[in-house]
Specification:
The complex is a heterodimer of chains A (616) and B (218).
Chain A (H helix, E strand, L loop, with lengths): L1 E6 L5 H9 L4 E4 L6 E9 L2 E7 L11 H11 L5 E7 L3 H12 L5 E6 L1 H6 L2 E3 L1 H8 L3 E3 L11 H8 L11 H14 L3 H8 L6 H18 L3 H20 E3 L9 H4 L2 H43 L5 H38 L1 H15 L7 H9 L1 H6 L7 H13 L3 H14 L2 H25 L8 E3 L8 H35 L2 H16 L6 H10 L1 H12 L10 H13 L4 H11 L1 H26 L1
Helix pairs in contact in A: 3-10, 5-10, 7-8, 7-9, 12-13, 13-15, 13-20, 17-19, 18-19, 18-23, 18-24, 22-23, 22-24, 24-26, 25-26
Chain B lengths: L2 H18 L5 H8 L3 H13 L3 E3 L5 E3 L1 H24 L4 H11 L5 H12 L35 E7 L5 H6 L7 E7 L5 E5 L2 E5 L1 H4 L2 E5 L2
Antiparallel strand pairs in B: 1-2, 3-4, 3-7, 4-5, 5-6
The chains are: A alpha/beta (616), B alpha+beta (218).
Chain lengths: 616, 218
């Protein structure tokens, strides 16, 4: 048996899913899509039941990856029963999606969640009336209190039904649907989609387009608007008959503080600063512990185990890769993910997007782009993956360039380890400032030269609520798993590659080759080139390699302050790490991956050379 | 009851409800249509039987979904006709309105559609009359000249139409559809705004807000 949760974003689907399945959740990619699909198993009366958490969507008509995924899931009859999750406090808006789901005639039940919130607002829901109107069993739940969650599975398994309702569309639309059905024999849902220009049957699309144009001329309104209006009006009518209003308690509206320029913007800055600071503080202390434990517990014993030099080199490379992966992943990335999940689950991220909208416009982006940018401070890999939320190719391209420049936690390690430690804290901050200026300049130029149209922000503000510790941890855990899954294999492979490189003595040849650039242009010692090269694999490796090659951890004694500063800037700007290039390639294609990499090489060398020339 | 009278009732209920934010009582309807209360009561009972109106607890007469569909169609006819008489034939506003009131009951959907079409791209006929501005849902020659950006924080407005196709989809899904009453919850100095629509807050960029054509709600 397989059941699936379907609903708008932010209706508490994940919370219900989490309570139904507990641990042991898998994240899968639906074939042909990059949307994550969580599935979990639950044992019910000795049967194994697979529960799928479909991505939150507002509509089934669109062409976004999420909408397409859910649509094909429904078309293929992907589950034995669908659990439609609605938000009791926003029933009318939520019913809009339900009217569309009903057109696919799946066997389903409806769970009206957030009953606690609705009660506080003074809304009273008549569930038996709603059951009658929708033609499927309705269950009122409050997932945050765990109320009625245990009744969801029994109800879904025993009494799921095909909804019995259909939207009364405008008579021109109905006529069009009938004529398409008659002439082409296609189904009603397919015809409805085709009238709105969605589908893959050229014959149907062609016929529908002609009819749609006729209807549009008559109504002075697009078919989409007509259909959406019909559905919304129908949903309103249902909502009005099943909901009655009592006086609810008026609670203090936090948004009156959070979404005003003052004090909203200072609060936003403070929250982001605190997030980065705590990641940095917690991260560096944890990293030290992990690295030390790993070195003394595994690497040192391995080194004295007496393998042949070749095996020794390869084994050592693998171990170092694992050590570095863990040393970055858990202290920095995981801590960051916890903070990020907290911000998301409280609903604050949407406020941040709103406040940042105008500033982001100057960068050729819009408010929602602040989310990938913030994630970029943790790690560039998931930031690139989150670029999907931006709707146009133009925005994705601009944001991809900027994200690869945002100092991720590994680059923070370089800046802290080299500049803050040996040159001074103020100089370390100056690097951040410099990067910020470069990001803004890059964005201003890119927003002028990148083709494509600008698209604004339309974001539903998630209701503010208290995050659930367990859910935050689980979300962070799933994310870190995904991160390790992508980054670890690359780390190990490249580490072995570098090990072999050293083993066959190619390092010196390489240093000779690029000496004109390193020594003449940047004014750095020859071995710095190797360190920068290693930085391509993992940024923080630049720092570690430099210490190894310089033969001392006290870098201040072998390099001047200017050299250290230049080195830090070049390695921070120089080529996003190999994992980033891999996700960029996967997400946006080879062209963008190559362009961003080449751009960062040129930028890194240019800025390094300028500093060298100016200060020397 | 004649269908024209029936439509007049439905229309009166809708217009009254939109203006006063509550539905009319039987006495209110009597005043509007110039009839005595007993007569109105009998007519309303007939409409209730047809399932077009309902009598709410506080004696207010409200439209059912069916009633609303009919009254919306009649109102559209009224406004298209009025627009035609006013703009194209150059009648004065009051005369155009009262003339539209009688014509609206007999004119066919098809005629109204064609008339709407004609108003959009008029071929000049007869006297050369300067076009006056004409607003409203029944007047397709122009959507409301105001966008969300013309209103302030706290204002309640009714969506008239959404200009441009590219951004419309998500707005439609979130309930920003023609006829929907929305409230501007927040408007920053930089014109980004938060809209309260169907009980949900939706944040919009200025360029999106500019594409949503609205009118102040009555």
């Amino acid at each position: 048996m397989k059941i699936a949760l379907l609903g708008n974003p932010g209706v508490g689907k994940s919370l219900i899913f989490n309570q139904l399945t507990g641990l042991g959740v898998e994240v899968n990619r639906y074939p042909g899509s990059s949307v994550a699909l969580e599935t979990g198993n639950v044992c019910f009366r000795k049967d194994r039941i697979e529960v799928v958490d479909l991505p939150g969507i507002y509509s089934l008509d669109g062409n976004s990856e999420e909408e397409t995924l859910v649509r094909s899931f429904l078309e293929e009859g992907g589950a034995d029963a669908i659990i439609g999750v609605l938000d009791a406090s926003k029933l009318e808006r939520n019913l809009y999606l339900f009217t569309q789901v009903a057109e696919f005639s799946p066997r389903m039940i409806v769970v009206v969640n957030m009953a606690d919130l609705a009660e506080r607002e003074g809304l009273v829901l008549d569930t038996s009336a709603l059951t009658r109107r929708l033609g499927v069993p309705v269950l009122l739940t409050a997932a945050s209190e765990g109320r009625n969650i245990d009744r969801i599975l029994p109800l879904a398994l025993s009494s799921a039904m095909v909804p019995d309702l259909s939207v009364p569309y405008d008579h021109h639309i109905e006529a069009a649907l009938r004529s398409l059905e008659k002439t082409l024999g296609t189904t009603r849902p397919k015809n409805l989609l085709a009238l709105q220009g969605t589908g893959d049957d050229p014959l149907l699309l062609g016929a529908a387009e002609g009819i749609a144009r006729e209807i549009e001329q008559r109504h002075m309104m697009s078919v989409r608007q007509i259909i959406a209006t019909n559905r919304h009006n129908f949903s309103r009518e249902i909502a009005e008959t099943v909901i009655s209003n009592r006086d609810g308690k008026k609670s203090f509206d936090l948004d009156s503080v959070l979404t005003r320029v003052f004090p909203g913007v200072p609060i936003l800055c403070a929250i982001l600063f605190l997030l980065l600071l705590s990641v940095f503080v917690i991260g560096s202390s944890m990293e030290e512990m992990i690295v030390q434990a790993f070195a003394s517990g595994i690497i040192d014993p391995f080194n004295v185990a007496g393998f042949s030099p070749f095996i020794q080199k390869i084994g050592f490379s693998v171990l170092v890769a694992i050590e570095a992966g863990l040393g970055i992943a858990f202290p920095f990335v995981f801590t960051f993910y916890i903070g990020l999940s907290l911000l998301e689950d409280t609903g604050y991220m949407t406020r941040a997007a709103f406040l940042a909208d105008r500033a982001m416009h100057r960068l050729g982006l819009h408010g929602e782009a602040i989310i990938p940018m913030v994630i970029g401070f943790g790690c560039t890999v998931p930031a690139v993956m989150s670029l999907r939320i931006l709707k146009t190719r133009r925005e994705q391209t601009i944001a991809a360039f900027l994200i690869t420049m945002v100092p991720c936690s590994a680059r923070t390690v370089v800046i802290a380890g080299i500049v803050a430690a040996f040159v001074g804290l103020a100089w370390a901050f100056s690097i951040y400032l410099l990067i910020l200026v470069l990001i803004v300049l890059t964005a201003v130029i890119l927003s002028r030269i990148t083709p494509g149209e600008q698209f604004g922000m339309i974001v539903e503000m998630a209701p503010l609520r208290r995050p659930q510790g367990r859910l935050v941890l689980k979300k962070s855990w799933l994310r870190i798993k995904e991160f390790l899954f992508i980054a670890m294999p690359l780390l190990i492979i490249t580490s072995i590659g570098l090990g072999l490189f050293q083993y066959f003595g190619l390092i010196d040849a390489f240093q000779e080759l690029v000496a004109p650039v390193t020594v003449t242009l940047l004014g750095l010692p020859g071995y710095a080139s190797t360190a920068i090269l290693f930085g391509i694999f993992r940024k923080e490796l630049a720092f570690e390699t430099l210490a190894v090659l310089a033969g001392t951890a006290n870098l201040g004694s072998v390099m001047s302050s200017v050299q250290l500063y230049t080195f830090a800037i070049v390695s921070v700007l120089f080529v996003p790490c190999i994992s980033t290039i891999a996700v960029l390639y996967k997400q946006l294609g080879a062209r963008i991956a190559i362009l961003t990499s080449v751009y960062s090489v040129i930028l890194g060398l240019l800025i390094g050379a300028i500093i060298n020339l100016l200060i020397k | 009851m004649q269908s024209s009278l029936r439509e007049d009732y439905l229309e009166a209920i809708q217009v009254f409800s939109e203006k006063n934010r509550h539905a009319p009582t039987i006495a209110d309807l009597g005043t509007i249509l110039g009839k005595g209360s007993p007569e109105v009561e009998a007519d309303i009972n007939e409409l209730v039987a047809r399932g077009e109106v309902a009598i709410a607890a506080d004696n207010e007469v409200t439209l059912t979904a069916r009633g609303r569909t009919i009254s919306a169609s009649v109102l559209k006819k009224h406004e298209t006709l009025q627009c035609f008489l006013l703009e194209m034939l150059g009648m004065d506003a009051l005369a155009a309105s009262s003339e539209a009131c009688t014509l609206e009951h007999t004119v066919s959907d098809e005629t109204i559609d064609l008339l709407g079409e004609y108003l959009k791209k008029p071929r000049r006929v007869g006297r050369d009359i300067p076009r006056r501005g004409c607003e409203g849902p029944g007047c397709p020659s122009s959507c409301s000249p105001y966008s969300l950006l013309d209103f302030n924080e706290g204002d309640e407005v009714v969506v008239r139409c959404i200009l441009g196709q590219s951004c419309a989809k998500r707005l439609l899904d979130l309930g920003v559809v023609p006829g929907e009453q929305v409230k501007i919850r927040r408007k920053l100095g930089n014109q980004s705004l938060v809209l309260l629509v169907k009980g949900c807050d939706v944040a919009l960029s200025p360029e999106i807000a500019a594409a949503v054509s609205v009118e102040r709600s009555l």
